[in-house]
Amino acid sequence: MEVTRKNFKSQLSTIAESIENASFISIDTEFTGLTSGLPGHGTNALDSPADRYNKLRSNAMDFLIVQFGMCTFQYLPAEKKHKVQAYNFYVFPHTTSRHVPDIRFLCQSSSIDFLVSNGFDFNKLFKEGIPYLSPAAEQKLRETIVSKHKVSDAFCSPPFTSPTGVLDSSIAKGPVIIPKENESFINDICQSIEDFLDTNSLEMDLDPCNAFLRKITYQTLKTKYKTGIHLETKTKENKQRYIVVSKIASEEQALQKEADKYTAELEELEDAVGFSKVIRMISQSGKLVIGHNMLLDVMHTLRHFCSPLPHSYEEFKSLSSCVFPRLCDTKLMASIQPFRDIIFNSTLGDMHTILQSKPFRKPAIVIPEDFPQYNTCNERLHEAGYDAYITGLCFIGLANYLGTFQTPDKLYIAPSSPILEPFVNK
Length: 426
Prior knowledge:
Blueprint: E1 2-3, H1 8-21, E2 24-31, H2 49-59, E3 65-76, E4 81-90, H3 109-117, H4 122-128, H5 135-155, H6 183-197, E5 203-205, H7 211-224, E6 229-235, E7 241-247, H8 251-273, H9 276-285, E8 288-291, H10 295-305, H11 313-323, E9 327-329, H12 330-334, H13 348-354, E10 365-366, H14 384-402
Parallel strand pairs: 1-4, 2-8, 4-10, 8-9
Antiparallel strand pairs: 2-3, 3-4, 5-7, 6-7
Helix pairs in contact: 1-9, 5-8, 13-14
């Protein structure tokens, strides 16, 4: 299922249900680049895990996740099949508010060209990508909103309020000083307010203007009109900011407007948290999370949606285990006995092909109608949702092969089985 900003909210309950019912979850990500090319920071086969982590942390973390694939696999005992639900999320850190971090990131031309050649839609990413906030950014924005409205509760509308609605304590509560070159602008605003108050209209939009002009507009109107009007700054789709002037008949109405504004800003905050909610659902579920060559996937996921990456590799492992208690890498599984001698190519597509034939057993799956009917004969590798799907199929094949060493032979190995423990969190 393709998920963008347009349908994220409506699909969130379905996503939560898929995660809750899953036996295990497979993931995959696509990035704007893989390495910044700093001399001496390239990884190689002789690197220790700590060396590899440190090189990737210093050389690869300025890229963005642009697509996140998640596939849930729910085992149905009566049917002896897995119910598969694949999601393909477009994610992009939109600046939904002035207080949301304005992210800078790197792009690697070869990676962008690679994504385009595999059908990646960058127009969809930039226009419809799901926003996200880290817990720290969310907390900071929430505190800003709460602090602002505590002021509003105390004073209804602060005497001097910045265009963002935050009390500016540096401004003295005396006469408003308007620069000479802006006097005509402010006089026109005041005249338009007088005309507006003589009409039957309840609201009036002032023309968009810069932050300084909005600031002196707020100051002037709050001084000139102690009661009778309410001011609020809004943003158009093209990011232009403007002031909305509303008529109010009483103090209670002013308070209600502030309460409505507070509610709306909290809803906007929830929208800004966006895709981070999915990562939190996966984390809170405690389910086994499967990836293929997944160190970079985990590092980027933690950095963008959870927490800055620690300098120490040991601290990184602790952070990873807190967020994802159980991780399993199918590429690593394939390099360990009893798989190492029979899987000669562990790239995702080739490994999946090997696992379709003996001595492995092809997994039986069922895909609901609302989800993509992926056909492995028509590969869509490097679409994150499809790669997560193939990764999950590979895990089932590997896990069930371990069942052939049991007495009697087991056709299904549960993700919680002790047989899998040598491959978990490695």
